[in-house]
Design a protein that fits this description.
12 helices, TIM Barrel, two-stranded antiparallel sheet, eight-stranded parallel β-barrel, alpha/beta, single chain
Length: 293
Amino acid sequence: MADKDGAKASKDFGVGVPPPEQGGFPVKGAGHLDWGMQHRLARMFDPVSGNTVMLAFDHGYIMGPTSGLERLDLVIPPLAGHVNVLMGTRGAFKTCVPPTVQKPIVLRGTYDTSVLFEDMSVGGGIAVDMANAVAMDASAVAVQTFVGAPGEKNSLELLARTVDAGTAAGVPTLGVVAVGKDMARTEEFFLLATRLLAENGAHVVKSYYCDGFERVTAACPVPIVIAGGKKLPEADALAMAYRAIAEGARGVDMGRNIFQAEDPAAMAQAVGQVVHHGFTATEAFTFYQDTKA
């Protein structure tokens, strides 16, 4: 059995060394998956850049109406054309996103307790079974995990159950690293959390950016997509996206930094310039300013 007290500090992350070729499929760690899994992942990641821009609008499942998302039906459909993937709850998709919107979707597959609860990591369970995810043509199912929190055991079990069900149905699992207000957002934590999710079967990991991020992405055997997190000034959000992509992220999943921007559509497009076209943060911010309505 592994003993954490006897572990040596990691040193050789092979930063900058690409992963081995896996049958020509471009998504990291997915070369040995079956056709259905690869087909769904290929919808999510741009075939040229190999990256993705995801728009998260699932905040209401624990927070209720969020600033900028008071009317999902008015906000989300106009933004869909500027991103690669939409990430939300099944209730939001079924009521507020027309099925004619031709974008791959990631379904929030687990529920958690609301912001009124003392510790959101304690509660949680399966919110969408795999049969319903397949019926909604989901490209992936997202599972929130609470590494280092009271709900760790429960959330990792939900992750494993979702991976098992998804493997049988050909649906990838996106593991989401949850960071509570008392958790240290350090390289050491994210090295552990992202690797933990990947080794428990997640096909894509959503995590936060941190110092030493190039080692976090190198050590994770599947693609990492960064979470946008709290609202930042547009220039700062674009700078974070640029650093993350430069240091190995394969995309960004932004919510508040897009839908709470002064011009959400322009911001979504600016993020895409960073993620897919190699714009620097300065170039992207100039693009944003020039594109604003």
